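Entry 14. Two folds queued back to back today. First construct below, sequence then structure tokens.
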Amino acid sequence: MHLTNQDLIELVEWRRKLHMTPEISGEESETAQEVAFALAATGPDRIVTDLGGHGVAAIYGGFEPGPSVMFRAELDGLAIEDMSDVPYRSRIPGRGHQCGHDGHMATLMALARGLSRKRPKRGRVILMFQPAEENGAGAAAVVADQRYATIKPDFAFAYHNMPGMTLGRVALVDGPITCASRGMRIAFTGRTAHASMPETGLSPVPSLLRLLPALEGLSSGEPHSPDFAMTTVTHIEAGERVFGIAPGSGEIWLTLRTLADARMEKLRLDAERLAHDVAATIGLVVEINYDNIFADCVNDPDAVYYLERALDDEHIAYDAGDLPLRGSEDFGGFGKDGTKIAMFLLGAGESRPHLHNPDYDFPDDLIGIGARIFDRIVRGMLG
């Protein structure tokens, strides 16, 4: 793939433009419009918009029949204040691109420029700009969209920039790469009372105190083992912020995390059982809800093979790094319906702030590196 100096200058400018106007999950309408406009200039055969929300897909067909290969980037930013000192920092209060999705979009746009100049010999390439990755809803919504069936790929590839790794180095494994996770909200309802007569009410506080260590006791195994399970309490609340009322309600919010989807089901049922048992001892009403649900992300060996070939051809060093990660990534949702997926981590520099830190900024040097890897996959698979 040959990107000119002018290409790189324009792609960096475009990435920084996106950086200034981040939109959070489910609200990416203006970002999607910007992406669709830029894609149109590269001459795809078809652009599909509003996929699973605000998703955008561009299709570039080859000259002969062959497999369909998809490359994914994310549209959404975060509800984090941008505290960086760069001149292109976010102009939207309380919103930022501290996960680097702006850079992922620029990488796919670089690939789009390459495809505009040289189509694959066979098959087709799909560039997927996916909504709502950060809350785990986006990939599933795209796959559930009826129009996705017309562009469903045989293979799908993605990367995530990763600070703490040498710039440009790749981490890649065959098998699990990120964990399944879900947010769990357990709400207890009892009965308020005057603070001087708490015995006349039904406070959830004793039950909350009993449940906390029991939930933590569900954690098991090492991060790389199939039995890995982790519970992390993220929020606790009981009653009102007053001194005269004994509480009649309370909540625990926690994140459930496992290496595999099957293990998640057991962890979920165990956590629900504990909540119901604790509530039943004193007659509390319990309600359980879930949000931010991420499936596990498992790299297919066939997809990894093509990715490794591309890295070898580009002379880019790679190893297993710290994979699999305990974090979650909803790219795995594209692999649940038969598509063979592979995701890798691309080093963003060892001294760079971590992902989701308020001063994180995607390194522009990765745009060209990521695009070269993706283009090499295209040429290796489709000619």
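Second construct, same run, same settings:
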Amino acid sequence: MFAQLFLGIFFIIKGIVEHIARKPNLFIPEAAVQNIPKEELSNYLKKVGKVHILLGAFIASMGQIEFWYKPELWIYITTYIVLGFGLIGILLYLNKRYSGSYIMRG
């Protein structure tokens, strides 16, 4: 539960920093900024920031749901796979669209 909570908080903070910041820092690697054209960087960081905020909220809430409600394992795992892979798929799509590669180095 605590690992999911802290991981969720990390992604939420990362998403907020990406949504606000426009230069490399602790959460935005230099390689990510260099791989994306300057005119598209603002749009990319806003979109990726929103997805990271959603991913963080999802992970933290799933940890709380697991702790408080003890759902059946197959429902819990299916929800994690469907929603989690959906958000990760959106991140991969954004990386491909803006940088031309599915993987951001850095």
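Quick look at the second one. The two ends are 29 Å apart (CA to CA). The helical segments are 2-20, 30-35, 38-69, 73-99.
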